[in-house]
Amino acid sequence: MALFAALVTTLSVALVLPGAVRAAPAGRTLNLVAFGDSLSAGYRLPASAAFPAVLERALTAKGHAVSVANAGVSGDTATGGLDRVDWSVPDGTDGVILELGANDMLRGTDPAVTRKALEAIVTRLKARGIPVLLAGMHASRNLGPDYTARFDAIFPDLAKAHDLVLYPFFLNGIVGDRTFNLEDGLHPNTKGVETIVAGILPTVETFIDRIRSRVP
Question: Which of 31, 89, 148, 183 has its CA at a distance of 20 to 30 angstroms from the CA of residue 213?
């Protein structure tokens, strides 16, 4: 993703071309959007225990002036996300944490379809000057080596092609561990969300640094 600036003059802001990334003054609260499915929405959890809220508190504790909006929709696929990205990510958003793909994998969707939809989401956000942190997903190994290889490659490939900050696996540290998941074994419980946030936090901080420092 293209990323941004700490200080620009009024004139330079006026001359930014379409698709260029807007400046983010160092002292201003950044508006991030967690755009994803049930994993980020907080399935069966109170809003205060969902990923966006827990991440916002963790970032605040580290001294970052950031708000994290919850734009997660349970059951959403990458294609579903593409259908709603324009209205789910409002103007004034400084960055998006894109977390989609798990439902595609669970449904056995052709990885080419998932890749195309995710790339279209990234492209639309770039056109609006909004950078993306891409949260990766891994396919279940029982889907076979061909599917697994094709699906898993989506996220590093897109990150490389579009210069995105990448967190390789959103569920790192909690998969298969009942301590961190609800009874369904698929969705994180409160401990699981806290573990996800602890894992992704350094990557989000890198993302924030890029937002604040990159000159358009």
Answer: 89
Active-site residue, from 37, 40, 76, 187 = 187
Q: Is position 91 annotated as part of the catalytic site? A: no
Tell me, yes or no, if 67 is annotated catalytic: no
Those residues whose C-beta lies under 8 Å from the C-beta of residue 170, and which sit 6 or more positions away, are: 39, 40, 99, 102, 135, 136, 137, 196, 200
Instruction: Please say whether the beta carbons of 154 and 111 come within 8 A.
Output: yes
Establish whether 184 is a catalytic residue.
Answer: yes
> Which candidate in 38, 40, 76, 138 is catalytic?
38
Rounded to two decimals, what is the model's pTM? 0.87
| Collapsed DSSP state (helix, strand, coil) of residue 133 | strand
Q: Which of 171, 178, 214, 201 is nearest to 57 (CA)?
A: 201
Q: What does DSSP say about strands 66-72 and 95-99: parallel, antiparallel, or unpaired?
A: unpaired
Cα 125 to the chain's mean position, in Å? 12
pLDDT tens string, the chain, 216 residues long: the values are: 333 333 232 223 323 333 444 444 457 899 999 999 999 999 999 999 999 999 999 999 999 999 999 999 999 999 999 999 999 999 999 999 999 999 999 999 999 999 999 999 999 999 999 999 999 999 999 999 999 999 999 999 999 999 999 999 999 999 989 999 999 989 999 999 999 999 999 999 999 999 998 634
Locate 47 and state its tokens. Answer: 């809003």
Helix locations, 128-189, DSSP H: 145-152, 154-162
